[in-house]
Amino acid sequence: MECERLNDQDDENLLRNTLIRRLDATSENLAIATMTLFEAVVSLGNDSVMYNLVIRNLQSKGHLQPYIPQQEGIDGVSRFLSLFPACQAPCEGYEGYLRDAYAAMRLAPTQQPTTISPFPSPLMRRGGPSDAFYEGLFLHTLFNRLEQLFDHSLISNIRLTAVLTKLARYSHPLLRDFLLVPNLPLLPSLRSPYRILLQLAEAAKRKSNRFGKELRNLLDHTHQQLATTLFTVPASEAQGLLEGLVLLEEFCKELAATLHAYILITTTRLA
């Protein structure tokens, strides 16, 4: 980990690191502009760029526990959807996310290894137990921002989740498993989108107790409002919380649909 952290500090990466740190800038406008930039960069799917930003940090497989059994399939989709009760099937809007994800990924070339599997491959972690894993400055910063979702504006969070979704759609198995497989046997101390969303779901439950039985109606009303007034400043703290809850629900649907699309693509390619 120290070696990776040092590599992130050297002069060769100075410009990249300066931009990455602006993802978590104190100024929301600067953070939003930087996330929009990285969303465009990740959307290009350039192998060299993706290697520099994320893949090189996953290649050692140091994020995985020493022995990994084959597990996880469509159940992973349900795990994301079950984080919020309102996402239980039938899940409004889910089919649209699935169509978008499938259309975006089905023609993308698959990186090595060449087969996309809905299950993590049985892998032996390289190195010994003392080897530390560092996800790299890019994912580290994005994960920090995701953990603080309730502290940031709606438009900032929309840009953040867009970057994470684009990363999850990049067809590299190590990155896909790290971002999308809920029960991938990661080392206990490591973060992943699912683990962070699980914590956010628990926080959301505590924060939303104030709404009582009206929560679902309020969320539906907020969802309708956001469809026409996306960039308005929340009128109150309660309104801001409702907007954050709506965003979390939609992000869970989007990640579930992305994993579901990968499974469908795998089934088609292996048929």
Short structural description:
By secondary structure, this protein is mainly alpha-helical. The chain has twelve helices and no strands.
Top keywords for this entry?
about 270 residues, 12 helices, about 60% helix, globular
Shape: globular
Put simply, the count of helices is 12
Q: Rg, please?
A: 19 Å
Low-confidence stretches: 112-130
What fraction strand?
Answer: under 5%
Largest sheet: number of strands, sense, barrel closure? none
Structural class: mainly alpha
Order of helices and strands: HHHHHHHHHHHH
Mean pLDDT: 82
Helix content: 55-70%
What is the subunit arrangement here? single chain
Please count the beta strands (DSSP E, at least 2 residues each). 0
Distance between the termini: 40 Å
Question: What would you say this structure looks like, in words?
Answer:
- The protein has helices at residues 2-7, 14-21, 28-43, 47-58, 75-81, 94-105, 137-147, 154-169, 173-180, 193-207, 215-226, 237-270.
- By secondary structure, it is mainly α.
- Residues 112-130 have low confidence and may be disordered.
Spell out the blueprint of helices and strands.
Layout (H helix, E strand, L loop, with lengths): L1 H6 L6 H8 L6 H16 L3 H12 L16 H7 L12 H12 L31 H11 L6 H16 L3 H8 L12 H15 L7 H12 L10 H34 L1
Helix pairs in contact: 3-8, 5-12, 6-12, 8-9, 8-12, 10-12, 11-12
